[in-house]
Amino acid sequence: MSVILDLAGIFVFALSGALMGVRKRLDMVGMAVLAEMTALGGGIVRDLILNVRPAAFESTGYVLVPVAATAIVFFWHPHVARVMPAILVLDAAGLGLFCAVGTEKALGFGLSPLHAALLGVTTAVGGGMLRDVLAGEIPTLLYDRQLYAVPAMLGSAVMAGLYWTGLNGWHATLAAALLTFGLRIAAMRYKWRAPLARGVKPSD
Amino acid sequence: MSVILDLAGIFVFALSGALMGVRKRLDMVGMAVLAEMTALGGGIVRDLILNVRPAAFESTGYVLVPVAATAIVFFWHPHVARVMPAILVLDAAGLGLFCAVGTEKALGFGLSPLHAALLGVTTAVGGGMLRDVLAGEIPTLLYDRQLYAVPAMLGSAVMAGLYWTGLNGWHATLAAALLTFGLRIAAMRYKWRAPLARGVKPSD
Amino acid sequence: MSVILDLAGIFVFALSGALMGVRKRLDMVGMAVLAEMTALGGGIVRDLILNVRPAAFESTGYVLVPVAATAIVFFWHPHVARVMPAILVLDAAGLGLFCAVGTEKALGFGLSPLHAALLGVTTAVGGGMLRDVLAGEIPTLLYDRQLYAVPAMLGSAVMAGLYWTGLNGWHATLAAALLTFGLRIAAMRYKWRAPLARGVKPSD
User: Fold this and answer.
1) How many structural domains compose chain A?
2) Which of B116, B188, C48, C128 has its CA 20 to 30 A from that of A199?
3) C78: which chain A residues are within 8 Å (Cβ-Cβ)?
4) Which 3 state secondary structure label does DSSP give B118?
């Protein structure tokens, strides 16, 4: 079950990578590289910091699912772009899942709640940041003022807090993932925005 | 013998890094950083993922050869640029060597053939991607539609396949390296190109 | 004592990250990410290469000090920018400290003097390079011709040399840090510049 959720999260993240490839007119190789990086990059960075072999290099599905996502975008990208609102909802689900699972894994390796939450956020947003840097753009996360990292931070903090009070197991993971998902969806719907430094005018 | 080939591959990759530095009008420090990153970056990423100390930090030659390449480009870059066609052939040889050796090392650490091949490609193309990102450009690999990663993928796959059938040793490494080299040269000569997603017009 | 110096270095580096965030009109999240990356990035890369868990993920102060720096810049950035000359002096002190401490740690893990010095420089300049890449710019280090990496290289080399002759301990670390600091300050005051490749005209 958890494996299927993982692969679903990877699939959605890979779609966003491959779509970025289309938008930047990259070739098929570029699309596949962005798809793999977006889907697996966050988890790879997490595992490097935990000093274990990255999970992406021990699972066949993790590597092949982004290839499938690339193929789908390659042939049907106008349709994929048309269902973008649905993809944003799935992406919010992937965000929740990745930050909860990433925090949990880090806690299991003995990191403090603070550091585990930080690594959970890294898992969730690292791949998207790599995607944007490779595509020659400033990571969306840093400037678009949408709340994307903040829901992941809160979800990871709740996960770490529950674990710390002894409430671990799949209930805690699910609660943290749902909280992140709900906050992200609410942030999109109600256009909650991150503040700019005092006195800085928005550019848009 | 294998050490001399390694250093030759590092030298050629470092030349391309230092030349990028000249093209972007970087100073001597920038040239040296790009040379080191281009030459050593792919192998460092491979070794981080294998969870061992990067080979670049255990060999003096690996660090000093890019310094020598930087010095040559610093003083004689117009001549170096003039022999660019020869450098592209040497670069193809470096590509073949790095993907074969990288795949072999990963197999030796117990990775599956799929993951070993993926890491072999990373070894071969990772340094060039780092070079381009640091120079403020989208990695050439992602958009120029030249077949650069694809020969490395096929060579790494053949290396992994031979190893899997019990045919390891230098014959296999040589075969995989030569295959990559030949495909890359053929791709340059016959202008084989990677496809764009359906309906996307080429920008050039 | 050494912990306080470390945190001071992290604070100054984090200020430069958060200020870059203001300059690029990033939101609060972007400012915090740049502050953390600038302050901790170099040490994280060093520890990944040494194959140990990054110090940043074992210390609460390392993570919270950049948050404090972000808050200060968020509310008082015009004042912070006004004291920029003082910040540049503090940054030179951070540079000296980080390259000396980074080299020392690498020597303690058994790296050769050459590789330890290389890793010391990485510790000192890696965070700033990450900051610039994430902000969508070519790392200043590579092109601005100011001597920033060169003082760190010399300081790291002296640290490695002293250690190699048996002179380790805090005297050696202090000497290397002060040398780097002094060279960096002198380079700023006397406008020492790194050379461009032969025949390349400066763009400014």
Assistant:
1) 1
2) C128
3) 199
4) helix
Interchain contact, B57 vs C142, CB within 8 Å:
no
**What are the chain B neighbours of C193 within 8 Å (beta carbons)?**
27
d(CA C10, CA C36): 9
Give yes or no for B115 touching A (CB within 8 A).
yes
Count of C-beta atoms within a 10 Å radius of residue A140: 17
Instruction: Round to whole Å and give the CA distance between C124 and A53.
Output: 27
* Nearest C-alpha in A relative to C136: A138
Q: Across the A/C interface, how many CB contacts are shorter than 8 Å?
A: 87
> H or E element: which one contains C177?
helix C170-189
pLDDT tens, residue by residue, C152-175:
999 999 999 999 898 878 889 999
**Closest alpha carbon to B148 in A28, A110, A18, C29:** A28
Q: Which residues of A are less than 8 Å from B202 in CB distance?
A: 25
**Residue whose pair of structure tokens reads 């995607």 in the numeric block:** A131
Chain C residues touching A148 at Cβ < 8 A: 29
Sorting pLDDT into bands at 50, 70 and 90, what band is A20?
A: very high
Chain C touching partners, 3 or more CB pairs below 8 A: A, B
- For residues B36 and B57, the answer to whether their CB atoms sit within 8 Å is no
Q: Tell me the residue type at C10.
A: I
Residue A183 inside a domain? The answer is yes
Q: Out of A26, A30, A57, whose CB is closest to B49? A: A57
Q: How far is CA C197 from CA B77, B85, C152, in A?
A: 8, 21, 21
In a domain, A178, yes or no: yes
A36 part of a folded domain:
yes
ipTM: 0.93
> Each residue of A192-203: pLDDT tens digit?
988 999 888 876
End-to-end CA distance of chain C: give it in Å, rounded. Answer: 43
Quick check: is A198 in a domain? no
Listed in sequence order, the DSSP H helices in chain B are 2-23, 28-50, 60-82, 84-108, 113-134, 140-143, 149-164, 170-189
Determine the structural domain holding residue B85 and report its residue range. 2-189
In C, minimum Cα distance to B71 occurs at C197
Contact B67, B147 (CB under 8 A): no
Does C158 lie at the interface with B, CB-CB under 8 angstroms? no
